[in-house]
Amino acid sequence: MKLTPLVIGLFLLGCSTSVEKNAEKANVSENGKTNTKASLIILGTTQDAGSPQIGCTKKCCASLFENGYSDRKIVSLGLLIPDKGKKYLIEATPDITSQAQLLSNALNSGSNELPDGIFVTHAHIGHYTGLMQLGKEAINAEKVPVYAMPKMKSFLEENGPWSQLVSDSNILLVGINDSSSVSLENGINITPMLVPHRDEFSETIGYKIQGPTKSALFIPDIDKWSKWLENIEQEISAVDYAFIDGTFFDSPEINHRDISEIPHPFVVESMQLFEDLPLSEKNKIYFIHFNHTNPLLDSESSAFNKVEANGFHVAQMMDVFEL
């Protein structure tokens, strides 16, 4: 596959994180609107608690509190199907208000419309709590489809305040199952994949997204790759883009926490695991879901440069990928 670098234009929030990427992406104009092809758009890259993080006094957050951080949003993808006028959110984050607007603007819909559906991965705060904005205290939405696995679906049905979203018909829960595809417009299919993670309230999944000509893997949260029943290298080989867990760059970054409680694959571990892959395979990989301490949030950092120099990529706000 020949990969062509394109510069992605940013809009609305004055983001300045756009960089040239070694990928075939949708043509985005200066006002951020995509072309007519089905595409994925990155609407957030940080871990559940965001960046800066509440109570953090470290340098990584202090400057953001002082200077602003409008381009720091919690991990989410948008799925655009322009010729059908459809748009979907993957993850309902605490930043859903601005992310829904970004998604509408990208579709050139002319208004801040709700997504046509929301896919969630699991019951950790950065991935589903944005659903609260669909309730009566906010927009009081009408039957927005929310796609959820069995335990996740039960969790939303049986626990307040989420159960009120169901009883008031603000959301319409749509059950999905491991390895069973959901068919959307234009033959686009989204397939959930169970992954090992801290499943206190629900199972955890990633998604494989199959478009008309290209496909993507989205696994923002997972324990160590060795715990997964699937082979991550084989999964990467089967897609065109792989947005994978990059929560922590390395262990010194979190020396104040018990790593057994948060066993994500370090970025340095993933790069070592993938070091023998051909460059064409490495180019597919975009690390995402960064903790507030992760140096990859700084595009000027040596860690960021190391990732790019080794053939991998760091996911950036408003990057767009054709499907």
What's the arrangement of secondary structure elements?
Blueprint: E1 39-44, H1 59-67, E2 76-81, E3 86-90, H2 96-107, E4 118-119, H3 125-128, E5 144-148, H4 150-158, H5 162-167, E6 171-175, E7 182-183, E8 189-194, E9 205-210, E10 215-219, H6 232-237, E11 241-245, H7 267-273, H8 279-282, E12 285-288, H9 302-309, E13 313-314, E14 320-322
Parallel strand pairs: 3-4, 4-5, 5-6, 10-11, 11-12, 12-13
Antiparallel strand pairs: 1-2, 1-14, 2-3, 7-8, 8-9, 9-10
How would you summarize what this structure contains?
This protein is α/β, with parallel strands linked by helices. The chain is built from nine helices and 14 strands. The longest helix has 12 residues, at 96-107.
Structure keywords:
323 residues, alpha/beta, Metallo-beta-lactamase, Chain A, 7-stranded mixed β-sheet, 14 strands, disordered N terminus
